[in-house]
Fold:
Amino acid sequence: MTARDFVPPTNDLAALAAASLTCKGCHLWEHATQTVFGEGPPGARVVLVGEQPGDKEDLAGEPFVGPAGGLLDRALADAGIDRSMTYVTNIVKHFKWTPRGKRRIHQKPNATEIKACWPWLEAEVAAIKPDIVVCLGATAAQGVLGRQFKVTQRRGEILESPHGWRVTATVHPSSILRADDARRQLEYEAFVRDLQAVAPLLA
Structure:
């Protein structure tokens, strides 16, 4: 079973979001609080795709509301991209985690889970028809561009995906937050430069 069994034949984002709440296309729904669907205007010029919801997103039911989301908002502003013209989502819509004491620790989704959830992202992009899809991190980039894709080698390039989407890839903002103090500003500036490659496409 995959999400394909739950995705309705519509380009209406609200209808897609409502249908996603009952998705049981893989086992991850069993331990998540709720589905975390994408958010943004139907006419968004840019679709930003992360890996999966984190702990705060799982509880809030909204993508990119934690510290990584705050950093993303700042970087978009610094890159000259209007945040209100972007749609944010994840390649996997349920939080995958493992318990550590009272904390829920993020676990990376595997290829089977990504493939199971893929129809949701496909439906989101088909509904929005953005100018470009920006993959945040290796999980999203490899899900969209193929498992051999390396963000470290091709970040910031404007590419064509096998699905006919115009795509670029960069790091996930959470990786910048994890960097040590000496490197964090450099990593942030590189992230902004990657996003600046998108801005001319929106002019």
